[in-house]
Each structure stands twice: as structure tokens, then as C-alpha cells.
Amino acid sequence: MAEQPTTGGTAAEDPPSGTRVRKGPGRVLIGVYVLFAIAASARAGVQIATKFSDAPVAYLLSAFAALVYLVAAVGLSVGGPVGRRIAYTCCTVELVGVLGIGTASLAISAAFPDETVWSGYGSGYGFIPLVLPVLGLLWLRRTRARR
Q1: For residues 126 and 4, which has the higher predicted lDDT (pLDDT)?
Q2: Is residue 4 part of a domain?
Q3: What contacts 46, CB < 8 A, 6 or more positions away?
């Protein structure tokens, strides 16, 4: 029986990094990012449509968070060098955003008359916005190409 050639990995058990990122826990990660993209965009959409003048910065930050979640999900889904770079950038922006907005929303609460997705480090979403980028970055690191 002829041996099947592998595509990129060193063995059949070690698929190329572009597909490894989408396997196993990577699928769950992508699903959570899609779920958060939907939740954050729905929340921001309703807030922007119904009461934008109450807290425009907070609502636009929620819309920005939704966009970051969506692009991160796409980057993780695409995989490969470009997808990984996109996902890495989104996870980094997300982590900086949730730490920055989380801190600002606690330190200068008057500047945030209404919550964003990242307010209080994502407390309104069970702190998942704080944990999600860390998990994303760890997963990208774990599935990077071996040299």
C-alpha cells in the first residue's frame, strides 16, 4: 500500500498550522468569537438605534468590539499565515481594549454613562471578554508552525 503524502506537516498527526488552528479547541474558540460578534453587534445596534445620544462613545465601543470579534473569528477560520496574523492582531487589540476600557470604566465611571462590552473587564458578559483574547493568543501560540 502506498504511503499518502502529507500537506505541510511532518506527519499525518501534525497537520499544517493553517488547519491546526481550526481543529479541536480552535473550533470552540471560533464559535465563541462568532457568538460574541453576534451578541455585541446586536447590543450595539439596538443601543445606537434607540438611544445613541445617551452614551455615544460607549455604544460605538461596543460596535468596535463586535467588529473585532467578527474579524478574529474570520482570521481563526481562515488559518494560514494571513489568517493567523489577523487573529493575532485582533486578540491583541481585544486584550488591550478590554484592559483599557475596563480600567477606564472603573476609574472614570462618569465617562461611561452606559456599559460597553468591555466595561468592568467584561463583567456584563461573565468576564469572558477578558479571558477570550488570552485563550485566543495561547491557542495561536500552541498551534504555530514548528521550526
Answers
A1: 126
A2: no
A3: none
